[in-house]
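Researcher: Going back to the complex we discussed earlier. I've cleaned up the inputs and rechecked each line, so this should be the final set. Can you rerun the prediction on the complete assembly and write out the structure?
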Amino acid sequence: MQGTIIENLSGKKLSLLVILLIIAQIVCFLIGGLIAPTPASSQNILGTQCKDTSINGSDENKWFYSRGNGSCTSVDDTHFSSDTHQQPYQIVYTFQMPVPRNNLDLDYSRWQQNLIGVLQVDIRYNSEVEIARRTLITLDARLAYRSKDPQDVWKPYASSTVERILDCSIDMPREQYNYNCKAMPLFELGSLYHDYYLLNIRLPSNTGKNQGLGRIVDLWLTAINQNGGFTKVWVSLKTVYFPIVLGVLTWYWKRVYMLSRSPALLEYMLLTLGSALTFLNLPLEYLTLAYDMPFMLLLGDIRQGIFYATLLSFWLVFAGEHLMLSFIILAGISAGIYLLFLSYMIWKVFKNISAKRAVLPSMSSARRLHYEGVIYRFKFLMIATLLCASLTVVGFILGQVAEGQWKWDEDLELEMTSAFFTGVYGMWNIYIIALLCLYAPSHKQWPIEPSENSISEEIEFSPLPTDPNEMLSLTAFARKTAVE
Amino acid sequence: MRLWMLLAVLSVTAYVSLAEITKNKNRGRGSMWWGIAKADEPNNFLPVSPTSMLDSSVYGNLRRKQKKLIRDNPGVLQAISRGANQAVAECQYQFRNRRWNCSTKNFLRGKNLFGKIVDKGCRETAFIYAITSAAVTHSIARACSEGSIQSCSCDYTHQSRTSSAVRDWEWGGCSDNIGYGFTFSRDFVDTGERGRNLREKMNLHNNEAGRTGVVSVLLQHVSSEMRQECKCHGMSGSCTVKTCWMRLPSFRVVGDNLKDRFDGASRVMVSNSDRVRSNANLANSVHQHRDGLSRRQRYNLQLKPYNPEHKPPGPKDLVYLEQSPAFCEKNPKLGILGTHGRQCNETSLGVDGCDLMCCGRGYKTQEMVVIERCACIFHWCCEVKCQKCRTTKTVHTCL
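Model: Rerun complete. Updated structure for the full complex:
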């Protein structure tokens, strides 16, 4: 019977492979920790209040900005104190992204991939005008873009009148203190194709809108973008892994195809998993450097989602294959129980194998050594699976821990978030490469040991006639003893 | 480092005349920039030259390094001016109920904005230095966020790369603005103070305490999760990637914080080691004397508490050298207006109570009819509709 590579590989070769994979894993982690910056960074932009002098503020092509030629006349916030008769639409909050630094007019690079805008409202406490905890706010938001060319003008990108719930509280209600209002998500750009962006926000007051807002002093926009350095490191990882995984995957499938039997469920699952990973590895990000691809955020979600789904179902099948139980019903359980369940199953596999080991002493020495080796390697792979699963789940949990741009401990050289991302990403790739390699059908034939009781043993351990070559030999071994 | 040395050399060459040194010996020489508050409100069009909009008397009082900073960083002047005004308003609010009410004088060349009280190293002076320095930090950070100062630094803290700012920005984004506000305030506000005598050390310490006040308000709120905002933007909005940022507090919070520090300010004296040092300095060459303290020494001042049983002052604490005058009677020598004619609160037992405020001179009580705005309704954006209420108020005024 033909086994898989993991069963037939010598201990020396296996350890060499394992060491290589571990080194690759460490390299992945260090790339993230030492080279890559934090995954994302943000700029806090204070809105400049411009005065719209047009008659009703409905001119769609009029853009207000605070820097550059033709910048607007700004109004200071003293308009609250006096009874001036400005109309609400005359005040336009303008946000020009990005904000200049080091005397340079910074622009967005396409490497920065995406832009998320979060709006915050600073409302001053005034005992005469207290505001409700939750207030409806209506924003007339218009987004424009411009290229670096100094002759270029602002071109409209998107505009919308949106409603958001403003959630404000105040701990110490004192005059001149600000309410603590929660940030409101405003926009998400899936591709950062243009150089500059401009956001104009009006707070319309027609038909009784925006009346419960109190005294707004400032509007702040936090523009979050992925860091170019992180994208570069990430895409490099993808570029390296994509051909490797693709190569290993074709090699694996060739091996399976060469078998006389039709592929088993586990083999199909491995193929699907490899394909999902290849899809995830595909460095589509290069295209965003040349084309405007606003669907990238969605595509990224889909790719990641497919990968997660395949990986989790694979683990179920993988663990199930070695315990010979039906797990399809249990496949629907939630992700939290998932890890516990997986650990439990792996523990049972261990117990199962240990129980079956009791049979081993009655076998001939060569056969016993073979099975012991096989059991040992499976245990090793099981632990690797558990580790990979735990790290993936821990990744989710660690993600909840705040990772601010503000670092007071500036001596810390290691960028933990990025290290974790590249580490986990590398781990998936390495793990799946290892699986594809180790579970590929082996060409080696196990030599039949010439001995007097070899015939009876051969009968004992030959696969069941109803189950032609479908199982791994360990599975067969476990099932055989179970039948007895 | 080289830049810093260059600036130090510049400030040495910017030595003022001998007469001015003797005149300002008591208060140190870093306080004249406050006059920017009285400069005409700048308009929004960037002037061709930043000096044109400044009163020549105000500009003339700036130190050469401060002028250079203003020249080199367009937009900074408006921010400092806004900050100085904010500081004056905040000081007057915090001290509205005290004998000394942070009154400002008409600003003339060579005169100090807050009057001669700053010649004395008392608590009030400590507060003035701290609040002005804090206001510069705050308003520079604000102006950076607005984009009205182009030169705000883009500190790329992850690795000390020597590449250009554009590449830093593309690679790893820019740091928060409060850091720039902090360092700019150090450069601009502390210019005149070299920490050579105790008064200059007091000024340096209080300036630093003001700046630290802004940052500590920020951090204090971070720990209570009030001022820190986060956004999750991982896969499908999950929290695999989370970006957090700070929100600049309202300046009133900073003012309240510093007022608390004012109440708990510690009195300091020259420590022995300092005396030895300054004597040695006198004996040494003029150059060493002129250079004053190095940057590291400047902000690691070891001030000794006047009362040996007290703890030495921490970086956030305000320090003073001498007891405050009573502020009761008019004293032109110290620029004190006195409390004659000030309104007081008859029922209060605090400093705003009539007993303390009027220094036991007694007060007169008047019935006044006041027309006030009341029952205000606020209409977004720009209208506050109020009723006018006539109320009869009893007003107590110090004799």
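Model: Worth noting: The two ends of chain A are 21 Å apart (CA to CA).
Researcher: Good, that matches what I expected from the previous run.
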